[in-house]
Automatic annotation (TrEMBL):
One of its GO terms (cellular component) is catenin complex. It is found in: Cell membrane. One of its GO terms (molecular function) is beta-catenin binding. The keyword Glycoprotein applies. Residues 30-137, 138-210 form the Cadherin domain. This is Cadherin-4. One of its GO terms (biological process) is cell migration. InterPro entries: Cadherin (IPR039808), Cadherin-like_dom (IPR002126), Cadherin-like_sf (IPR015919), Cadherin_CS (IPR020894). It comes from Thamnophis sirtalis. Keywords: Calcium, Cell adhesion, Cell membrane, Glycoprotein, Membrane, Metal-binding, Repeat, Transmembrane. The keyword Membrane applies.
Length: 210
């Protein structure tokens, strides 16, 4: 069986049979199709072909293809479907990585009587993150306190924000900065924030409650 990932020359053979001096034999282990990457928020058009699956036995007998798993015959239903004759598999709608980041499907090949002609193969589909979410603070308001007359470098508080995008990429990384300070006296920059941790500390002397 072949799996054509729509890239020139990139054809894999997970159900391939090999020829030796004794005739056809089954290879010891089925090949593994590499993960299929699908960018989220694609504008289509849909359905959009992802991969073509084909058994090399289809020149001998009529074969029907199907897929099973979450996103196919399990909720959410029909995110993916497959042409039972050609083996072309499609995604039917835009993907949202924050809703679901990956899918695991199994592809099947049977004859016209429903008899299995190949072992099922695993298909792993990963939704590629787009930078489509803004960081959001966990709390709307943070209250901190510091003694008047505190020395520069005195800890005040920590603010925390989360980003729903993929945290393993730059899309989901959160960085902090102080935009404005009120009041702006005795200095416009009385505090500084650690850009990575969100820790706020004093940076100048002169804090006076009165």
């Amino acid at each position: 069986m072949t799996a054509d990932l729509q890239e020139p020359g990139n054809v894999l053979l997970p159900w391939r049979h090999h020829q030796n001096s004794y005739g056809l034999r089954r290879q010891k282990r089925d090949w593994v199709i590499p993960p299929i990457n699908v960018p989220e928020n694609s504008r289509g058009p849909f359905p959009q072909q992802l991969v073509r699956i084909r058994s090399d036995k289809d020149s001998e007998i009529h074969i029907r293809y199907s897929i099973t798993g979450v996103g196919a015959d399990q909720p959410p239903m029909e995110v993916f479907n497959i042409d039972p004759v050609s083996g072309r598999m499609y995604v039917t709608r835009p993907m949202d990585r924050e809703e679901r980041a990956s899918y695991h499907l199994r592809a099947h090949a049977v004859d016209m009587n429903g008899n299995k002609v190949e072992n099922p193969i695993d298909l792993y589909i990963y939704v590629i993150d787009m930078n489509d979410n803004r960081p959001e603070f966990i709390n709307q308001v943070y209250n901190g306190s510091v003694d008047e007359g505190s020395k520069p470098g005195t800890y005040v508080m920590t603010v925390t924000a989360n980003d729903a995008d993929d945290g393993t990429t730059a899309n989901g990384m959160v960085r902090y900065r102080i935009v404005t300070q009120t009041p702006q006296s005795p200095s416009q920059n009385m505090f500084t924030i650690n850009s990575e941790t969100g820790d706020i500390v004093t940076v100048a002397a002169g804090l006076d409650r009165e």
